[in-house]
Amino acid sequence: MTWTVATFAELLENEFPARWAEPWDRVGLVTGRPEQPVTRVLAVVDVLPSTVAEALDTGADMIIAHHPLLLSGVSSVAATTYQGRIIHDLIGNGVALYVAHTNADVANPGVSDALADLLGLTGTRPLRATEEGRGFGRIGRLPAPCTLGEFAHLAAAALPVAHWGVRVAGDPARPVSTVAVCGGSGDEFIRDAVAAGADVYLTGDLKHHRVADVLATGGPALVDAGHYATERPWLTPLAAWLRTATGLETIVSETTTDPFGFHACATLDPVA
């Protein structure tokens, strides 16, 4: 079968329907002529100059991204902003762009399933269900109980976190067996993790005051592994599914798009 932008977009729409996306989200086809052939695909978390350059270097003519390039309304795509320059680069080089964001978050399997699988969770179910077995986040059990300290090291080793590891709130000796996870920015689902009886909740972008409130009221331990690190695992099963479904070469981006590039300590030089 010869794949085109139109048939490829139809495949993705069937797997991640746009109607599953949050009302504020912007998903679906962003650039690309419907009749344009698709021969090689690059899967990325973010559409940035670096990942577009990677697409051009690898000869990809389709990018599947998790985060939207144009999330807010625009009245111009002039090449006076980095988003505008990206649009020009994509169109000028015949590269189509498709976005699956919150519709991929709630999909089953979806972003949080990949995160749960990487941590070895079993018996998973949605943390906040939507409908038809879908929902945000996942909750399941570890194969064997461990301490919070051991779980934190497991997460740091399994996930593509920055070299400074993960942030942990809770007693390192606390027993952990039931684990809730959410890929990306999961601060709003802390209450769901509490209600579900999780021993620990792992996500990204946790807020100071909400974490303090949870600890003060005896809630679960909290692990912040970062936004990028908790969404990047999804690219691997996504690419595997696309290879099976289409027979096309599908590449997982090797470009790290976590914006935090190093950390510094008071007594040490910055570590790159």
From TrEMBL:
GO CC terms of this entry: cytoplasm
Binding site for a divalent metal cation: 66-67, 105, 227, 231
Phylogenetic lineage: Bacteria, Bacillati, Actinomycetota, Actinomycetes, Micromonosporales
GO MF assignments: metal ion binding
Highest taxon listed in the record's lineage: Bacteria
Annotated PANTHER family: GTP CYCLOHYDROLASE 1 TYPE 2 HOMOLOG (PTHR13799:SF14), NGG1 INTERACTING FACTOR 3 (PTHR13799)
Protein name per UniProt: GTP cyclohydrolase 1 type 2 homolog
SUPFAM superfamilies assigned to the protein according to its UniProt record, in alphabetical order: NIF3 (NGG1p interacting factor 3)-like (SSF102705)
Assembly and oligomerization: Homohexamer.
Record keywords, A-Z: Metal-binding
Family: Belongs to the GTP cyclohydrolase I type 2/NIF3 family.
Protein's UniProt keywords contain Metal-binding: yes
Keyword tRNA processing: no
